[in-house]
Specification:
This protein is an alpha/beta fold. The longest helix is centred in the middle third of the chain and has 12 residues. The radius of gyration is 21 Å and the shape is elongated. The model has no long low-confidence stretch (mean pLDDT about 95). Bound molecules: guanosine-5'-triphosphate.
């Protein structure tokens, strides 16, 4: 899609402080923003997209496992952005977390849920919409088939928000547009958020602004959107990127087939069979007679034993797969050892747990 420059000096706040309960056990030791998506932390894709959109001043609002994120991204220089970390001692909720960053927010800013995929968003276009409507806040909306699972946003013909309906019972929905987890907010709105208290956009701030008659608008985002908050959706998002159903600025070259390497020094035995789309990171060893049938993603330093087969599967880093094993439709977390002669299907496997994966 087209992308225009950030001519408005927008900053962004990314909410990365939630515990990621629904993504367990993958988030037991890994904060959701660091969960690898086609071999890069998800947050890295979002930062690359913001940078490409000209948004380089980015605040990370965090509380759960903040150190892993800070260690990887540092001040953001390697990623071409300037990162500010705002850490909550206790989780403050989505709006409370933004209030916690108020010292850095003196002009209109973008807020993004750290687990929602907006890699095709034209921020300049949505800001122009926001400005033209003279909105105090603009909510990014997406259209879904099953709105009853989400927070529905009702708007009038001018896209002004009339009502929020949280998870309406099936059949009673009055709109299929839902809150997609991204906003543009005017800085004065921060005054409406209590300091140091748990407070949410969805249930607290936006209903209050509506009650007060403030101009709240909904912008319909018609591109690829997903909440990668569950293992199933996380799995689908990875596969969609590999199949080129959507693009990340970090992987513009994926075309939906072929074998790609996202790192160096991986060794593939000449008698191994690989059918794309497959993405392999650095320092992997793929043994004699192994069979890899895409879509498959293999992280850094993985070992695939002789005669082992993988199909429609995601391996994180340093997964050690024994010989003569079969894996189909699985997510295997880092450092997991899979014994010889294992047969595992439709599962999420970590070093200590195996749970079903239904996609
Ligand atoms: P679940 O526990 O599985 O619901 O996931 P989550 O912890 O990510 O919560 P949820 O998906 O509801 O949160 C939406 C976004 O807001 C995510 O990007 C969270 O990281 C973020 N978030 C939720 N609560 C807080 C908070 O208290 N502080 C901060 N900084 N971010 C939050």
């Amino acid at each position: 899609m087209k992308k225009s420059a950030n001519t408005h000096g927008l900053k962004a706040v990314i909410l990365v402080g939630g515990p990621g309960t629904r993504l367990r056990p993958l988030t037991d030791n890994c904060p959701k923003p660091m969960v690898p998506v086609v071999n890069k932390p998800f947050l890295e894709h979002t930062l690359a997209h913001l940078k490409l959109s000209g948004i380089e001043d980015i605040i990370l609002a965090m509380s759960y496992l903040p150190e892993a994120i800070r260690e990887y991204f540092g001040d953001g220089e390697h990623h071409g952005v300037r990162l500010t970390y705002c850490i909550e001692e206790e989780p403050l909720g989505t709006a409370g977390a933004v209030k916690n960053a108020a010292a850095y927010l003196d002009r209109p800013f973008v807020v993004l849920n750290g687990d929602n995929v907006f890699l095709e968003m034209d921020f300049n276009e949505v800001y122009t919409f926001h400005r033209d409507k003279k909105a105090k806040a603009t909510i990014f909306m997406t259209q879904v088939d099953n709105p009853s699972a989400f927070g529905v946003v009702e708007t009038d013909d001018d896209q002004r928000v009339k009502r929020f309906i949280e998870k309406p019972p099936p059949g009673t929905e009055t709109s299929n547009r839902i809150n997609a987890g991204g906003y543009i907010v005017e800085p004065e709105v921060l005054e409406e958020i209590p300091t140091g208290q748990h407070y949410m956009f969805e249930k607290g701030l936006f209903p209050k602004l509506l009650e007060d008659g403030q101009p709240l608008y909904g912008y319909t985002y018609n591109w690829y959107w997903l909440d990668m908050g569950t293992p199933q959706k996380y799995f689908n998002f990875n596969i969609d990127l590999l199949l080129s159903k959507t693009k990340s600025p970090l992987f513009q070259n994926l075309t939906g087939d072929g074998v790609y390497y996202s790192g160096e020094n991986s060794e593939v035995h000449p008698a191994a069979k690989i059918t794309g789309p497959v993405l392999i990171d650095s320092d992997c060893k793929i043994g004699r007679g192994a069979s890899i049938k895409g879509p498959v993603i293999i992280g850094k330093g993985c070992i695939i034993g002789d005669s082992t087969s993988l199909e429609k599967t995601i391996l994180w880093d340093k997964v050690n797969m024994g010989q003569n094993s079969r894996l189909k439709q699985c997510i295997i977390a880092s450092d997991t050892i899979i014994k010889d002669n294992s047969k595992i299907e439709n599962s999420v496997v970590t070093p200590s747990k195996t749970v079903p994966l239904s996609v």
